[in-house]
Design brief:
Heat Shock Protein 90; Beta-Lactamase; Helix Hairpins; 12 strands
Length: 418
Amino acid sequence: MHAYIPRVLRVGLFLLLLVFSLAIFFMTNKNTQTVRILAIRSLTDTAVGLSAAADNALRSIGQDASEIRAVLSDRVVAYALVAERNGHIRFHTNPHLVHTKLSDQEVERWIRSGTVTNRRIVLGTGVPAYEFNFIMYRPQGPPEMLRLVLHTTAVDQTIKQAERIWWITGPMIALLWIMGILFERFFTYRFRLHTELENQRRLSLIGQMTATLAHEIRNALGSVKGYAQWLEKKAETPGPQKDALDAIVKGALRIELLVQELLLYSKEELYHLESFEAAPLIQEAVIAAAADWPGNIQLDIDPRTTIRADREKLYRVMVNGIKNALDAMGQSGHLAISSDHSSRRVIIRIEDTGTGLSDQDNDRLFMPFYTTKTDGTGLGLAYAKKVVEGMAGSIQLTNRAGGRGAVLTIALPKGKVK
């Protein structure tokens, strides 16, 4: 159950950050749209007010158009005109354009629509503006069209200022996600550290219990083995009694080996880390584990390779790895041991041409008491993993790529060259 806590936290935190990010994005977008709508509405209200004032002024226009010019002299007005139904311009803020004509079809289309229309345009000078077209109905006479073109500089500035909030919203969302990720990493690290401490404490207790039990078994076993060996020597002639005593001795030796490996695995390790050359240690391990093996052995060890590790423990790991490879091949095959120090770590590979690993083996190889050998204890690889990781290294056992057999890969820190 505890293993799912970081995953649940990660999913929950992701959903929470997503909800907050979407909420911030939605509110910012909503506020920006509201400012845009209000700015356009303000400009529309100005146009409506000016159109009403211009309509009142037009009712009293004679030859003098000074009153309507005063109404439309506001600096927000780019230009304004009043056109009759036939397109004749009766009034224009530019006196030179009075008595010119608009397109008959254009004026007729606006008047027939019967509604106020507006659109964003760009003046000939390249300045943005808003065009409003109003229909003015007269008690006597045909309707006329009032066109007001207003500058949008103030409106555009207001909208741009509102849109600048995105420059705050974006970093806020990014900061929110960064803080969330840092929190998740910190919590996961603390949770993993707590779990590892709990596991270490539990393993320490199990190790103490195992060591005590193993000592008691070894003491009792020593007496059983001693008496069985004494009785076996007393039995002068071969027979069922001598065979039974021989089986007892072999069983006791088997249990004694298991107890010794169990004590070795369960005890708390102390590491004496030092820098040393890899080649002599590997050669010693090969002599100890494969001196009488009739197969082919190939060593490819760079003499310049130095390792930082506990020499005694690494020697034990190498001997166990070589023996496992030989057991997998039987009395024939090819054993290749190589080293590589081109990366930040020293990589040692022990390759064999044995039967290889099954899919079932891959998940349980380094578990204590799991073995594929009939006479194995299942503690060799578990001990190797324990001490190699204790020396800041890593170990893995995989099938050979493109061939039969397996390869044991040990990675350890580089040593200092003397």
